[in-house]
Design goal:
The chain has 186 residues and is an alpha+beta fold. The chain has seven helices and nine strands, in the order βββββαααβααβαβαβ. Strands 4-3-2-1-5 form a five-stranded antiparallel sheet, with no helix packed on it. A hairpin with a 5-residue loop joins strand 1 and strand 2. The radius of gyration is 35 Å and the shape is elongated.
Amino acid sequence: MDFKVGDTVLVIDEAFSGVIKSISQSIISIETEDGFELDFNPKELLKINPKASLKSELFAEHSIDSVISEKEQPKRRQVPKVKPKERNLPAMEVDLHIHQLTNSTKHMSNHDMLTLQLDTAKRQLDFAIRKRIQKVVFIHGVGEGVLKLELEYLFSRYDNVKFYDADYQKYGLGATEVYIYQNVAS
């Protein structure tokens, strides 16, 4: 923008205007309405019509009534959009692989390991019921199927639970998804 001495300018990031008193290479000196002389970069200034008042020029295209009515319009609440794939994701995953549950299986029999896995599954399922979590995936692995059968027996003892094989693409054959009905009286 071409500035010349005598132009009335508005300081962009400030709430005041002034008249250009001098221009050097990259500095423009303005005198504010209060009589202060300040230096600015040309990018910080906006040339305005001196005959128009500051408010009328800034708000020329907006009347006060239109601004107020715009502010009074109720804003539509933004609902977070859930992608179709994410809609069916379980809220909780429980990995029952023995190396996830204990640091060492050195002194544990197969029965001890299975008991630890089943106790963990029962504790996590009870937690999910208490916290009203609707879906839980229990990752048990494939193996010989002993843990899977024991889990199915455990889940069948709950009235408010439905269980089935979890998503094959994500877990393969080694996981069971449990759906917990929330409206059943406990």
